[in-house]
Amino acid sequence: MTFKGDHDSVPSSSDQPLTAAAPPSGGTSSRRRPGPNTAAGKEKVALNAIKSGLTSVRPILPGESRADWDAFRRAIIDDLAPNSPVATELAEGVAFAFWRRRRVIAHQLAVLDERQHLEPASARLLPHPLDIEKIIRYEAHISRQVHQGMHELEAMRAERRGQPSPLVRVDHNGAGTLDAAESA
What we know:
- By secondary structure, the chain is an all-alpha fold.
- It has helices at about 40-45, 65-80, 85-115, 120-125, 130-160, 180-184.
- The radius of gyration is 28 Å and the shape is extended.
């Protein structure tokens, strides 16, 4: 039986034989290569992963207008009329989510345009199933962001008016609603 401290125990790293370092290879290194050093180079590679822009956290992507974004953002924020720094942040988030929702719609239209050469009419009317799945997933995510921001703004307004804000809020899209005669 071997106990800690016995000289029969597992050899330590100092007991291991020393090996010569591997000579530098002339090919590719396993180390990460350094990225660009200049601001222009960093800005250029920052857009490498953008394909559709659906997941981008950048408000302006190539092909989008800064003036259009600024006007859209200002219109949404003015409409929501935030009255505190926190409410302004929430309104900014809602504006950005609406802007991203526009990207989803543009992406969906582009996907459909790419399919117009296909022979069956049904193939021209619907995106590919993988594209549909992605569009639905992003649209649902953005919709949740919009609703969450709007609910928080509404709760803040209710609190300022001295009204209780609901602890739980359930949204639905009209499915399962009762008309006035059924609810009485």
